[in-house]
Amino acid sequence: xxxxxxxxxxxFTDDQWLAVYExxxxxxxxxxxxxxxxxxxxxxxxxxxxxGTNVDELLIVTYTDAAxxxxxxxxxxxxxxxxxxxxxxxQKRHLIRQIALLPQASISTxxxxxxQVIRRxxxxxxxxxxxxxxxxxxxxxxxxxxxxxxxxxxLYGEENSLFKELTASYSNDRSDAGLTxxxxxxxxxxxxxxxxxxxxxxxxxLYMVEDDQLTHGTLYQHLLKPQLIDILENLAxxxxxxxxxxxxxxxxxxxxxxxxxxxxxxxxxxxxxxADQYEQVFEQCRSFVFDRWKAxxxxxxxxxxxxxxxxxxxxxxxxxxxxxxxxxxxxxxAADQVERMKKTLPLIQEMARVTRLFTQAYTxxxxxxxxxxxxxxxxxxxxxxxxxxxxxxxxxxxxxxxxEKFKEVMVDEYQDINQLQENILFWLTxxxxxxxxxxMVGDVKQSIYSFxxxxxGLFLQKYExxxxxxxxxxxxxxxxxxxxxxxxxxxxxxxxxxxxxSVGQMAYDDAAQLVQGFTAxxxxxxxxxxxxxxxxxxxxxxxxxxxxxxxxxxxxxELTMVGQKINELIQSGFQVYDKQxxxxxxxxxxxxxxxxxxxxxxxxxxxxxxxxxxxxxVNDTQNYFQxxxxxxxxxxxxxxxxxxxxxxxxxxxxxxxxxLDENELAAIRITKKTGDYFDAVKxxxxxxxxxxxxxxxxQQLYLKIEQFLSQLTKWREEARRESIVELIWTIYEDTGxxxxxxxxxxxxxxxxxxxxxxxxASSYEKTSFKGLFQFVRFIERMQKKDKDLAEPTAxxxxxxxxxxxxxxASKGLEFPVVFVLxxxxxxxxxxxQQAYVFNERxxxxxxxKDLRYxxxxxxxxxxxxxxxxxxxxxxxxxxxLYVALTRAEEKLFLVGSYKxxxxxxxxxxxxxxxxxxxxxxxxxxxxxSLMQWIGQAMVRHPQAKNDYLPATAxxxxxxxxxxxxxxxFVNEEELKANMKEESTVDxxxxxxxxxxxxxxxxxxDAHIRSLNEAMHLIEATYDYEAATRTTSYQSVSEVKxxxxxxxxxxxxxxxxxNAPRLSNRYTQDRLERPAFMTQITAPTxxxxxxxxxxxxxxxxxxxxxTEEQIEKTIQTLVQKGLLTKDVAKRIRRETIQRFFxxxxxxxxxxxxxxxxxxxxxxLLMDAGLIFTDMEEKAGDxxxxxxxxxxxxxxxxxxxxxxxxxxRVQHLGEQAREKMLEKYRGQMGLYRTALxxxxxxxxxxxxxxxxxxxxxxxxx
Length: 1259
Prior knowledge:
Elements: H1 14-21, E1 27-31, H2 37-50, E2 58-62, H3 65-85, H4 89-101, E3 106-109, H5 110-121, E4 132-133, H6 137-156, H7 163-170, H8 177-191, H9 196-201, H10 218-246, H11 253-274, H12 278-287, H13 302-329, H14 334-369, E5 371-372, H15 374-385, E6 386-389, E7 392-395, H16 397-405, E8 408-412, H17 419-426, E9 438-442, H18 456-467, E10 473-477, E11 479-480, H19 485-498, E12 515-516, E13 530-535, H20 554-571, E14 575-578, E15 583-586, E16 592-596, H21 602-611, E17 616-618, H22 628-641, H23 646-654, H24 662-671, H25 677-687, H26 695-721, H27 724-735, H28 737-742, H29 747-765, H30 772-784, E18 802-806, H31 807-810, E19 815-820, E20 836-839, E21 843-846, E22 848-850, E23 855-857, H32 860-885, E24 888-898, H33 901-908, H34 921-925, H35 930-938, H36 956-959, E25 966-971, H37 972-983, H38 987-996, H39 1005-1019, E26 1033-1035, H40 1075-1078, H41 1085-1098, H42 1107-1119, H43 1125-1130, H44 1133-1141, H45 1143-1150, E27 1155-1166, E28 1181-1193, E29 1198-1204, H46 1215-1238, E30 1242-1249, E31 1254-1257
Parallel strand pairs: 1-9, 1-10, 2-3, 2-8, 4-5, 8-9, 11-12, 13-24, 13-25, 16-18, 16-19, 17-18, 19-24, 26-28, 29-30
Antiparallel strand pairs: 6-7, 14-15, 20-21, 22-23, 27-28, 28-29, 30-31
Helix pairs in contact: 1-2, 2-3, 3-4, 5-15, 6-14, 6-30, 8-14, 10-11, 10-13, 10-32, 15-17, 19-35, 20-21, 20-37, 22-23, 24-25, 25-26, 26-27, 27-29, 33-35
């Protein structure tokens, strides 16, 4: 299809325009951060629709449900706008039809779409269509454990199998938990593959060595050889850097000679690896010994000593790295390694067999329980779409249906899909590359979900293929419309040095670099990125210092530094550009976000920022299960399940639920000094049950124990009969624990936590697990897997507070000012430290355990795949850094810590003389933190000039790069000094200074005009001041005076808003009686009247109302706790029966199906009709809310009625007029409201006077 010409005034860039209109083949849009990919995707959908495609002929796959909802909303908004602008009638009808089709359009996550496929084509795979989706990770884990326990028991009973050897190889003497972790991990990893069984069958292929020649196979050629080349090239470069420093003086000849010899060795080893001479390299490595390093002479100049020290830094680095290489890659000869691999292969095959058995049993159990998990949805969908026939995979009728239905398949966040999902997409799209209809958009530099088994390699494969127009086309959106140039330049400076194919999985070339697209930011010198380094080396502290301030950890130091910087930004009125207002404004707390790698420091952030008086919004502190009230409740539930658990029992007894102190606990234990503590509790109870002995102390303790045991017996009985939800609520009611915690500090939060436990139990009851024991196990599993429940926050999303979130949570968001915290945190490489590692291409890498001698030996597949895994982990860490930095619109702060400034420059300076732009691969792979990467990427730039390293930047691209930044080192003394400055002036001092200030006479006309203007504003009166003394909401009962008899002019009486009252809302003069008074005195007439109304609402109108029937209704209300017995006694049954004996009462009973009782209503009225002195031009409205006792709705009209329990018999014939005078206005308002609601006339309005039985017509 021909691409239309882009108008000159188009808001799209050329690349965006191309991404909207390009079609006819598969298309990959690589959309950098802030490049408007969602806008492009929505525009592409709209243009497809405008050209005749229906919205339900498109499949749009998003990564989250929230993204799907947003996509639908944006498409609907764009359609509505297009409809408004469209003049062609036929096209307009087409667009309007899309609005109707949108709700059922396929715009969803891949899992939601899979669910639709399964619901429609379940018969193709013989699946019962009635099933429940497993969405709770904890329920899944428990179900897997139960199945595994059964499978494991059967395997232990096998003879002539390797299962016991497998168990011994991956478990310890105490438990076989290691084997459990292995099988579960392998199961999860295999299930991400479209064909898990096939992958498991090939699990040990890397351990098969052809003709025992190590260098001939995939292991060496594709893995070991490239890895060793990277290492040796880096070693040679470091050695040559030391040689170069030594060339500065003849006095360094000895040091230079040592480094030269070692550089020569590294080059020899490098050539040997390239020539596949593994054995020769092995012998050289094992026999080589480093010479003793020669220090500079004592008499040498300081410059010579410094140069010798720099050489030693480089030498130490490559020496240590060489030792690591020798230990890993050359720990054994090729023959020994091949022998280890042969011995390991049978265990790998057994590993695969056991995993297949577990998979089969787990699948059967899910089928029995009619449940599926998310992974099942994907595999079942793939089975529906394609089947293996005639030695090849073929599409089914389902695949054919969707390929014909969908004109285009659009995938958002394509970098985060896996191979299984890729296969599903294949069977939904056109198979021919010539007319491909797959549109993919994403940014591989933001792929940070490997823990969900996302595979960015799929994106990268197409990224490379489509560059050469092979199988599709590639479009790159590089323009960033989010951030200032200062931020983008700094990001580019870092990543042109850090990211390439070897570390990062892709080259950060010109096409990948960020380009500033939004140019309206005002020019300034204040927005360059800042690197803040806390020096954690302890300084001497002045003991006489009056400020009690000290920093115990590096985390506190970093956070204090950040807090002070935030206060500095706020107090200085730092300017940020508001894109909506299109001008600068002063920064607010809500403009700032703190990005953290994990949530572990959230509690510290909350505590420290509270001290600094900085408002904070934390999404999740992950400490719910650590709160006191939840700990107590969980201990109690454990005791109810099994009281013979000493620690939970002691916790409950010591808690406010029982209230024992340590002396009382000791007294119990003295009664029975051995055995379970619960036996001691029972022994104490039995000993003091029938005797008055032991003194007052023991008797008081006995009463507490008696009550506890009584409650425990009751709760244990209820746990067997009732649900967990009912049990927890019973505990709350029996102990008053909810009310108790509500009276503690942070009581509102504590009550919310207890309610959350109740709700969590309710969710648990919906799972396939039942019973208290399983619930306790359920919660313990959540804690073990860090699946904590978040505490509800006391700050709303709209509040002016600093945000705190993880880097993962920040993806897709943007903030004017970003602090990236804890950058010195060591990389989490735990996956490379286990005994095994999985790879989707090469299978498994694992060590070999000699069970006879209980020794572990590394294997080369293990070494190679762990190195590959480390590359993947570090590539993701690099992408996380990219995501974090690209959240910033205007100002970026990078926060870390080092022992001191010298230590930082020493670590960063290892690359200072590196010649190429990209830093050495091995140096990046051996880095231990993001800050090390950042420092090494800055050190060659002119703005990183320092007193510790020579100006050795020789790379022109880095030296002349336009990025700007600053590096600040802060120690505890400086932070302490800042705290002093903030604490210097107390309240009395500033008041004294204010009194001592001199009056200044203004003579400048401009100042005088400003002062006059300020005084005018101060003294100004608000035009609608009367409205401030009213409210926009009133209930009918609060404005009864409005409904009295109209005044002489025929208008309703109004409320005088100038009359004194206690609030800005007109309320009744009398308050409701407090609950405690109703419990100790006789019911009032008003309370009896309210109770009578309740009875009138509750009466069954389908039955004749006799005295017995009315009494039955009243007693039912008493039993339900809705009426007290005292109030029920005072209800006059005869007045109710008399009412139903009237003609109107009989009409209600006769037409009971048309009667509506106790109906709330709201009516919007002009405020001027209700309150005096309201300004007419203000146009204020007031919302009146009330409740009608009842009405009968007929086809053409309605009858309104209201019960009145006022005592009127003593008024005689005047009762009718008095009640009309009192209630005519109110009933008029009810009538008006009812006519508006029903849109039909109210022909009769009645006051039902129960006291005298009269039915009064209201005209």
